[in-house]
Amino acid sequence: YNRIKVSDEEIDRQLEQQRAAAMADAETNLAQILVTVPDGADAATTAARRAVAELALARVKKGESFEAVARQVSEDANREKGGVIGMRPASRLPDVFVEATRSLKAGEVAGTLLQTGAGFHILKVVERKEPSIGRVTQTHVRHVLLRTSPQLTHEVAARRLNEYKAQIEGGRATFEDIARRYSEDGSAQAGGDLGWAPPGMMVAEFEQAMNELAINGLSGPVQSRFDMHLIQVLERREVNVEPKQLREQARNVLREQRFEQAYSDWTKELRSKAYVEYREPPQ
């Protein structure tokens, strides 16, 4: 792992990509006034529906409450809430909504109608939540580790971990007891407790399984380069991270991404240096 070198320029690019991703998926609370257009509507019907939407937009521009106009005019499911859709990340909003409101500040209304297959929309940005670039989610996690070998195959290890999981879920044993008795890791005496893990600290397979678990959830057997795990998430928290720590986390993420290739290169290097010496048998 220490053979994998990451430059400062690569860390800068990784941090910039993380910032861009956070900005692109920033949470926004939108409100809309929707004037629907029936499927297959002719030009006259479409023009009439546009006129209704234009009149509603003109009322808002003249100072009427957006919420009041929405309750009177809008034809969507949120009309009784003044058209408010609710706080959502950009990835959970229609792309056309995100694009139409990208330049708007909180409290501003789009100056033109947005037309979609549903009809005509008037959009307002109720609130924007700035992404927390300097904050990360830490996970308090514990595990039971079984190291595989010719005697303990992955299949057998997986069966044992499933048995341990059933004992824990059935109340016949605690996670701590199972970890102390069976885990082959330095955390065994602490009941498998690995403490608080920031992003990038765990190997990819472990981290993916950990991130998918709910609080107090138990994983199934998870295979990683360190063999087989049973994982439980105890807590999660948001913490501020110093710039130095952010850079170190970015370094760890890049190293993890390159591990497989580095390992492959290392084994090829070992093979290239290996040789077999043939000697004549003594006469």
Task: Describe the sheet with the most strands.
Answer: 4 strands, antiparallel
**How many extended strands?**
8
Q: Strand arrangement, largest sheet?
A: 2-1-4-3
Report the C-alpha radius of gyration, rounded. Answer: 28 Å
End-to-end distance = 48 Å
**Which whole number gives the mean pLDDT?**
86
Query: What characteristic shape results from the CA principal axes?
Result: elongated
How do the SSEs run, as a string of H and E? Answer: HEHHEHEEEHHEHEEH
Strand content: 15-25%
- Separate helix tally: 8
The helix fraction, in percent, is 40-55%
Helix-strand category: alpha+beta
Low-confidence spans: none
Features:
283 residues, alpha+beta, four-stranded antiparallel sheet, 8 helices, 41% helix
Topology:
Blueprint: H1 8-24, E1 27-36, H2 43-61, H3 66-73, E2 84-89, H4 95-101, E3 114-116, E4 119-129, E5 135-146, H5 154-169, H6 175-182, E6 193-197, H7 204-212, E7 222-224, E8 227-240, H8 243-273
Antiparallel strand pairs: 1-2, 1-4, 3-4, 5-6, 5-8, 7-8
Helix pairs in contact: 1-8, 2-3
How does this structure look, described?
- The chain is α+β, with helices and mostly antiparallel strands and 283 residues long.
- Helices cover 41% and strands 23% of the residues.
- The chain has eight helices and eight strands.
- The strands form two sheets. Strands 2-1-4-3 form a four-stranded antiparallel beta sheet.
- The longest helix has 31 residues, at 243-273.
